[in-house]
Amino acid sequence: MNALDRLTALFSRLPGIGKKTAGRLVYHILEGDPVYARTLADELSGLHGAIRRCSACGSFTETDPCPVCADPGRDRSIICVVERAQDVPVIEESREFRGLFHVLGGLIAPLEGIGPGNLAIGRLLERLRGGEVRELILALNPTVEGDTTALYLQKLVEDMKDAERGPAQVEVTRLASGLPVGGDLEYADRLTLSRSFRGRVKV
Ligand SMILES: [Zn+2]
User: Fold this and answer.
1) Which CATH architecture has domain 53-202?
2) How far is the centre of ligand 1, averaged over its atoms, from the C-alpha of 2 (Å)?
3) How far is the CA of 193 from the centre of ligand 1 (A)?
């Protein structure tokens, strides 16, 4: 394998990039300005060093805590639970939400061997035990895994209320329909997302 084939193989491992597209990208870089190739390589190699996960919410950030968690203007009584870190900027862009986030790092999917223990659920409960949170908005995709995870979290919150005679009366809500069924939060347009936030329903 020469350098060209090696880079093509690496690119084709990216989501949505087939072998053909990977080849096109590599030729594009090869025929372009070498400065661009070097900048791309530098940014890639520095990525994991520059960006880490926020120790509070789990989203990607250059500073810990992240700018959202550190912002005194955010409403600390509402936590919006999302599947992946990349869902956070999508919701931020809708400008509908002024609370805090919590990134689960996936959804419960027994067939794929992903259980609650693989997700950042323990840390979420810790945040709820702080007593400040009044509402948990589940902004999970309307898929089987999203529904399973939502039910599981709702049950956990109920159990917690029973066990601790709830100092925190946490209400669990879910984004209203309007999101494409089986679709992806990432592809929801801003207006749809704003509507689903305003029309969120108790679960
Ligand atoms: Zn954060």
Assistant:
1) 3-Layer(aba) Sandwich (3.40)
2) 42
3) 21
